[in-house]
Write a structure and sequence with these properties.
Length: 260
């Protein structure tokens, strides 16, 4: 299939958190294919190597990579400010890093709760805080926050994760209002059941596939490319009248919760 090319993304600096695997890696590939200058982070010192090698082999500009634990706010903001000092203002920020580890309500401690919020929500705000001044000085930009349909469906054994992901919608709407006068758009992508390497290794089997297909309006399994293509649109100037929105890329699975 042939998909859209967005000229406005060419040469723009794009930063993706959690870009070493899964949805994040596909985001890095997709922006590189648009001719953007892509930077991303992951948890391992060599975590970006495979994605970088793949992009270089395809003939696109090599991305910039750094290892960082996004839960360490001071280190993460220092990484972003160093990137801005080297490469100029970030035009597109994609807050993507997170983890959906399963956990029973009875097993949650205050420390684990705080860690889930730090890993899945807190760093979104502090990344925005770090990049927004230079983004505004450059004339504006686009911020895309990665949510999850899991909180809309009330998925069990994920309460720390779903609480954080629900908070992303509030963060998105508030900062869209606050940053709008600086020509910075803030939107959220809300993925549904996405087939990734991690999900396949931990949770996927024929019964799970069928359960998702039964719950969805569209009878296809979604992959990271579905999420990346929607993200490209919200990052590009083609969507320059859209802010404060959450766009579901879920094949209609959230409809089940509404009907129920």
């Amino acid at each position: 299939m042939t998909y859209a090319t967005y000229p406005s993304l060419a040469n723009r600096l794009v930063f993706v958190s959690g870009g070493s695997s899964g949805i994040g890696a596909e985001l890095v590939r997709a922006f590189a294919a648009q001719g953007a200058r892509v930077a991303f982070c992951g948890t391992k010192p060599d975590g970006g190597r495979a994605v970088i090698d793949e992009i270089q082999a395809s003939g696109h500009r090599s991305p910039w990579y750094a290892a960082c634990d996004v839960r360490d706010v001071a280190a993460y903001q220092a990484l972003l400010r160093d990137l801005i000092a080297r490469e100029g203002p970030v035009h597109v920020l994609v807050n993507n890093a997170g983890r959906d580890d399963r956990h029973a309500m009875e097993d949650v401690t205050p420390e684990f709760w705080d860690d889930r919020l730090a890993l899945n929500l807190r760093h979104y705000f502090f990344a925005i805080q770090a990049v927004a001044p230079a983004m505004a000085d450059a004339g504006g930009g686009s911020i895309v926050n990665m949510g999850s349909v899991s909180w809309m469906r009330g998925r069990p054994n994920l309460v720390g994760y779903t609480t954080a992901k629900a908070g992303i919608l509030g963060l998105t709407r508030t900062l869209a209002r606050e940053l709008g006068p600086r020509n910075i758009r803030v939107n959220a992508i809300v993925p549904g059941a996405i087939v990734t390497e991690r999900q396949t290794a931990l949770h996927r089997d024929p019964a799970a596939d069928q359960a998702f297909l039964d719950a969805q309006c569209l009878k296809i399994r979604l992959d990271p490319g579905h999420v990346a293509r929607a993200t490209l649109f919200l990052a590009a100037d083609d969507s320059n009248g859209i802010t404060g929105q959450h766009v579901l890329v879920d094949a209609g699975i959230a409809q089940q919760s509404v009907i129920a």
